Amino acid sequence: KRIGMVCGSYHKGEVERMLMWAQEEAEVLKMTVGDVVWVNGSMEVPLALDRLMETHDGALCLGIIEKGETQNGLAMGQAVVKTILELQLVHDKPIGLGIIGPGAQPEHIKPRLGPHATAAVDALMPFL
Question: Is the peptide bond before 102 cis (omega within 30 degrees of 0)?
Fold first, then answer.
């Protein structure tokens, strides 16, 4: 099965590592990675996923939403997840969620990179 990936570029170094782990997991599970789309932030994830769902059997998103001084990250995270759930139903295709946060503290990010990336790929398996 062919999957697409959407990656948030705000924490590019960390998300590149997540992408590497996700691609390795996809290979182990005999999935073909098609398009990888980089977006500026959470707000752009749903549109990129929507477009990928037209040409792929499934998709996933990788990114990090850190804890900020305001509740913006929490509000954005909730809106993005809600839209991702809706996109799965509209397209009848799976989307794996590999977003660390919202509210991630800097010390929480590194240990979650690999587990979140591979879990996003693994979530697609029952539906492909």
Answer: yes
Cβ pair 63, 11 in contact under 8 A: yes
Calpha distance 122→116 (Å, rounded) = 10
| Spatial distance between the Cα atoms of 76 and 72, rounded to a whole number of angstroms | 6
Q: What is the pLDDT of residues 15-27, one digit of tens each?
A: 999 999 999 999 9
Q: How far apart are CA 62 and CA 95, in angstroms?
A: 11
Q: What is the pLDDT of residues 69-87, one digit of tens each?
A: 888 888 989 999 999 999 9
Phi, psi of 73 (to 5 degrees): -60, -40
Residue 89: count other Cβ atoms within 10 Å of its Cβ.
8
Look up residue 75 and give its two tokens.
């509000």
Question: Residue 45, class by beta-carbon neighbours within 10 Å (0-12 exposed, 13-18 middle, 19+ buried)?
Answer: buried
Spatial contact of 55 and 3, defined as CB atoms under 8 Å apart: no
Task: Say if pTM beats, i.e. exceeds, 0.90.
Answer: yes
Query: Phi and psi of 61, rounded to 5°?
Result: -130, 145
